[in-house]
Fold this sequence. Notes:
Largest sheet of chain A: none
Strand order of the largest sheet of chain B: 1-2-3-4-6-5
Largest sheet of chain B: 6 strands, antiparallel
Number of domains of chain B: 4
Number of strands of chain A: 0
Number of helices of chain B: 31
Shape of chain A: elongated
Distance between the termini of chain B: 87 Å
Number of domains of chain A: 1
Radius of gyration of chain A: 21 Å
CATH class of the largest domain in chain B: Mainly Alpha
Structural class of chain A: mainly alpha
Oligomer: heterodimer
Strand content of chain A: under 5%
Shape of chain B: elongated
Strand content of chain B: 5-15%
Structural class of chain B: alpha+beta
Number of helices of chain A: 10
Radius of gyration of chain B: 31 Å
Amino acid sequence: xxxxxxTRWSLIRASDRAAGDVGAAWGELVRDYRPxxxxxxxxxxxxxxxxDLAQEFLLRSIRESWWSRADPGVGGFRRFLYAxxxxxxxxxxxxxxxxxxxxxADAFDAAGDATxxxxxxxxxxxxxxxxxxxxxxxxxxxxxxxxxxxALEPWLAEAPAHGELAALAARLGIAPNTLAVQLKRxxxxxxxxxxxxxTQLCVDDAQADADLAAxxxxxxxxxxxx
Amino acid sequence: MxxxxxxxxxxxxxxxxxxxxxxxxxxxxxxxxxxxxxYELVERLGRGGMGVVFRARQASLARDVALKFVVGGANxxxxxxxxxxxARAAARLNHPxxxxxxxxxxxxxxxxxxxxxxxxxxxxxxxxxxRVERDExxxxxxxxxxxxxxxxxxxxxxxxxxxxxxxxxxxxxPLVADFGLARAMDxxxxxxxxDVSGTPAYMAPEQHDAARxxxxxxxxxxxxxxxxxxxRGDAPDADxxxxxxxxxxxxxxxxxxxxxxxxxxxxxxRDGNAVSVRVPAWHERWRRSVRQHPAAAIAxxxxxxxxxxxxxxxxxxxxRAEAARADAARQQARTAQLAGLTAAAFPQGEGTRAAxxxxxxxxxxxxxxxxxxxxxxxxxxxxxxxxxxAQAGKAEAVTALLDEIVDRMGADYRERAVRRLxxxxxxxxxxxxxxxxxxxxxxEHGSDVYESALAALxxxxxxxxxxxxxxxxxxHVQPLPCEHPEYRERLVERFPDNGAxxxxxxxxxxxxxxxxxxxxxxxxxxxxxxxxxxxxxALVRGATRATExxxxxxxxxxxxxxxxDVAPSLRRRAIDAAPLPVYGDVVRVCRPDGAAIARVxxxxxxxxxxxxxxxxxxxxxxxxxxxxxxxxxxLYPNTPLAAEAYDLRRQYVxxxxxxxxxxxxxERLYDDxxxxxxxxxxxxxxxxxxxxRTPPAGWQPLDARVLMLPEERDAKK
Lengths: 226, 717
């Protein structure tokens, strides 16, 4: 049994679910991570068709129930999705080869330095953190602290310039050092939310930690990407 | 706009420790920084595997509380979910010796629960400071064990019981803490092992093995480890050692099945009674001579009836409201609470057996009246009551309750058995019908079959000493006057050589002191004394084996004993109820300071002779021997005879504490009593258990008062 009842990934991995439920869950999940799928194709051999390929991948994965290959041994969503992409891309390359041999256009113009895997990880991390941020915003709203959340958002990952926080504190009517503490707490909670979101896409803590390390690597080696 | 790459880097960075975050807030000078919702953190109190605890000020209620935050990463989402569910369950606990959980909530993404700040030290700290006296240790463990039993009954296992988790409030009352991290039992009354962690010194073997199931016996182990620690450095104590060993058995099946059972044994030890693991249920025949306090008994019985009424009402309402489960849980708690009040009102201790019997009798009569024909409902109420009694350390009282159930609810069953026994008109059947059919309640008439059985013994077995004795004895002990002096007359005419035969005068014949003095003088001439207990046990035991008890009796009994113990309990009660002569009149006229001795020539010597015969007769019941011993001690104080009598009493107490063992030993004791008499049976039981038959020089019983004569006991008070 999954430890928490119905994350989409645990739903997909549970073999006894009705196919309709699972298909819907899969569709939502891959759409949430579409940017990572596009990024993968953009860094690959078929970069010019990246958007189209992503769309085709999405549709076929849903139509052909690719999630059903997510047997209990398969592990987390990130690796599973990556494995599907690799296989799909290989099939596309074979098809392109055949077109080339039949006199088609040059399909092998590699794009950029980043490997498809790294690009995929980068955008996967962005999808993940944006999702976690939205969840956190909803929590603040529920606590009646939506205004604080919105006000602090610009400084989530950036040190405020001198006087900026003081001005904001004055506007919100709270003490400046209190606002500083609130910002610290916001960051801590954001981290927690990201970890929670990733954990929900993994089978266990060890795998979540491994995924986290991989995402950290990808982000560290490509600071310019945004 | 947010730099999402930077935000993502922050998001996937190794996250800050929750505890560190809280510590940072604590370091701030601004109270606002230390504020979490309604709370202001004051200081950190401690940190454990799953949580970190702060002292905090709750602004709205202006009180200090302990706030426990769950630490560990968001990776522990499942653990957090479990924490919240179980802290909520713990918040349901409402017990004076459990640290309550005020609130379970999440503030700014941090899960926490709040508890009262307790002024006193923990038990661990107290143990560091000083040794805990033995009596204090027992009292502590009775309280703690009762609290744990309460939690068990509400479906929670603690799994980390240790002195560090027992706190004292300002009154010095111990409270069990950390139920916020307890585990809820599943339908099978246990939890799977695995990620449960504990404190090694107090962890049961099964807690070290993730594959094994944990249940209430896991907590029993920890309670035993605590008891052992409290007693460390104390002089060895056989009872307490046995109790500890039973708790610390590596195999859960060999431990106490529940904390309640442990508490019951500790309470027995505290009250100077035999404990079940060493010396179980020695049926104290002395209760017949215990003086009654009618006013107290009636007052208690009244309070008791009112409480029981509330209890049963709650229970039946609860059944009607079964649809709403939350409601059921509340009703269950209410039932337990009422049962607790009822149990608290239940008399207990030395000299209260009559009051106990009266209270128990009242309760059972009430159940019969108000839940008539509904044995299942009776069982439900009785179950709640049994649990509450155990919790109040009055598990012994269960026996009184059980006896009343058997006596009152078993009346029809007994009547059927009597008819069947008498139907064959055999000697043994007729005697058994008389013994089993003997009316028991005050003012109760014997049935026609019972009267016919007595008459048949007189007419058809007039040459049979025991048959005739049973007729006379029944006539002697029945609650209402007996119209048949001829039973005893023929008995002493044909079998005058047994002193016991002279004593069984018919009930209601109101003999004067001079009459009794004459009886004593006559009985003293008899060379033997045998009150035929062995023969009676043999016949009653056979009779109870022959008839299956009906559900109307079995159901309520099942509330108090296991299924397999129903038949033995019925047998025990029947055998306990096997009649013996009433020696009160004889004891009274033989008092050396009494009027009769002063007036009647030769009575003093007759008393002395009879008393010595009783004390020394090999087949006399222990009751007869003890009566003889007491009479000798009064008549010949400070003589070798008195010393012999005192030694006999001492030996009896010794044998009682040493000799009586596990419940199945009762059957062997009955066998031996039938074959050799009750005294020799006790001796043989001691032999089997490897104990000496006589106490070593200098040995004293747990409660030295049991060696005293009643008047010496009173003087001592």
